[in-house]
Amino acid sequence: MSLMRNMAIKHKLILIIMLTCVTGLLLAGIVFISWESNVFRHNMVQNVSTQAEMIAENCKAALAFQDAEDAKETLQALRVEPSIVFGCVYAKDNKLFATYYRDYAEIRVHPPKFQESGYSFDGGFLTVFKPIVLDGELIGTVCLRSDMGPMYAMLKRNTGIIIAVLFLSSLVAFLMSSRLQKVISGPILSLAEVTKNVSEAKDYSTRAIKHGNDEVGLLIDAFNEMLEQIQQRDIELVDAKEKLEVRVEERTAELTTANEQLTQEIAIREKAEEDLRRAEEKYRIQFEGALDAIFVCDAETGVIVDCNPAATKLVGREKSELIGQHQRILHPPEEIKGEFSKTFLEHLKNKQGQTLETQIITKKGVMSDVAVKASLLEVGGKKVMQGIFRDITLRKRAEQRQNKLLEQLEGANNELKDFAYVVSHDLKAPLRGIKTLADWITTDYADKLDEDGKKQLDLLVNRVDRMHNLIDGILQYSRVGRVKEKQVQVNLNELVTEVVDMISSPENITIKVESELPTITCERTRIQQVFQNLLSNAVKYMDKPQGLVKVGCVEEKDFWKFGVTDNGPGIEEKFFGKIFQMFQTLVPRDEFESTGVGLTVVKKIVEMYGGKIWVESKVGEGSTFFFTLPKQEMGVKNENLKASFVS
């Protein structure tokens, strides 16, 4: 390969073609000779084996009767096979019984070493052994040797023929490759000549001639395109040179300006450094003057590297006693996990900037509750943990007192709940007795009572019913916010329909749901109480021949706004607040039976859910009771609901 590197391309092509042809022919010749040799050997083995079988068959009688002369005459039949130069018959005891030599072959052929059967090639001979078997018994062995000279002569002749064919083929290949190589080398040499001319004359307008559309043709196209680009760039370089001179002048002016700007930036930088120094001084003043204790620890080792006076005051140690110490000396043993405190590890992992509560131990061993807020900072290429500690011991004590008061309040509430049930039971029992007795008197003495007596008994029954309803109202009010029910999804469209059916309003009063109501998650009984009380009041106090009650809802930013509107008598503005108070009514109870508890219960339920309730009204025209329910707390499902109502 190194020899071909410096050869001309046409010589390389000729040499490659010649080597390819000669190698192919040589391999074909070698394969042919090898195949001929194997075939000849195989045929020799078959031929000699057949001769040996025939001799073995004819020598059975001679061996059986120990007639050596008969065996020799049988071996003389081998003269018809010129290649067999030796034959012999071994007796049963493996001794020579009879032999045959062709002409003077005994001079150079000797009896081979005995073996029972098989063949072998050695010394230029093929030796074949065949056993002689009579009635299943081995009585002797035939051995024949065939000269391999004919095979060698054939191989020599074939080799000569292959060499002659190889020589003639190489000559033809040389003549053809000498002419055909010009198809490839011609365009390449032409391209090389053009390249040389362009290189010497620097004439980039010269172009190579394309001879075809093969790879060489593509190379010539690429070369011509390269020359075109070089020529274009040469023109551009001349133009760029002229522009560069102008640019140098402009750049010089720019550098002068930049130098002035750099001088200004240096002054600004010096000012920034001065500001930074002042900021550091300000930080140090704030750090030292902070009311909260501040500890700065190495984030990797946990060693305290700085602290402020408030920190030394908190733990009762001098600054020299803290610097260089591990931060675990600040915490009691139960707060230590491994080498660090639990708070330090939590801030280091994922709670940076969060306030955690823990305990800290002073030099005297006194435990103090502290709130810690730590941040991971990088100072001078090193990570540190800065923790701000605030003493919350007093707050903790206040919380303990508050929790104790809450427990006492919970107990009082439980006692109040039990008291409400007891009072309810004790009050209802006499009321039931009074009502029963009044019913008996009315029935048994109906013919003995005058109109005034009957009127007084009816008044007694009404007062008993009012007292019974008042007790139920008080119990309902006490249950709101105290008795918890399972929150479920409530479709307000269905719930309002059920409430309307439950009220059974007179035929002259129409209750209308003006818009689609949302589906919310809440305590169903509580929301039912809200709509039932508002709709019942609207129906109860209706003074128009044709009453109209409307229910509506609008979606506002974070809540739903509901409204119940009627065209009843209306309410004076001075009573807007009074109607939501316990036991307050605007008309005498003898005209409209009412406990004065319903709106109070509604207000408590709405405010329990984080909403608010109010009334807007004009005397003689009607009233609208508005209330709101927050979406998040109520679990609102209808996010795109659009509704409206007339107030």
Describe the structure.
This protein is of the alpha+beta class. It has 4 domains: 2-171, Beta-Lactamase; 290-391, PAS domain (Beta-Lactamase), CATH 3.30.450; 392-479; 482-646, Heat Shock Protein 90. Helices cover 52% and strands 20% of the residues. The protein has helices at residues 9-58, 60-64, 68-76, 149-180, 182-201, 215-289, 309-315, 319-322, 342-349, 393-444, 451-479, 492-503, 524-540, 598-608, 631-634; strands at 84-90, 96-101, 118-122, 125-134, 137-147, 293-298, 304-307, 336-337, 340-341, 355-361, 367-379, 382-391, 488-491, 509-513, 519-522, 547-555, 559-566, 613-618, 622-630. Strands 2-1-5-4-3 form a 5-stranded antiparallel β-sheet. A 5-stranded antiparallel β-sheet has the order 7-6-12-11-10, with helices on both faces. A hairpin with a 2-residue loop joins strand 4 and strand 5.
Q: How big a fraction of the residues is strand?
A: 15-25%
CATH topology of the largest domain: Beta-Lactamase
Q: In angstroms, what separates the terminal alpha carbons?
A: 104 Å
Principal-axes shape call: elongated
Strand order of the largest sheet: 2-1-5-4-3
Q: Spans of 5+ residues with little confidence (pLDDT < 50)?
A: 588-593, 635-647
- Counted up, domains total 4
Report the CATH architecture of the largest domain.
2-Layer Sandwich
Give the % helix: 40-55%
Class derived from helix and strand content: alpha+beta
Q: Total number of helical segments?
A: 15
- The average pLDDT value, as a whole number, equals 79
CATH class of the largest domain: Alpha Beta
Computed over alpha carbons, the radius of gyration is 62 Å
The main β sheet shows up as: 5 strands, antiparallel
How many beta-strand runs?
Answer: 19
For CATH, the homologous superfamily of the largest domain is named as PAS domain
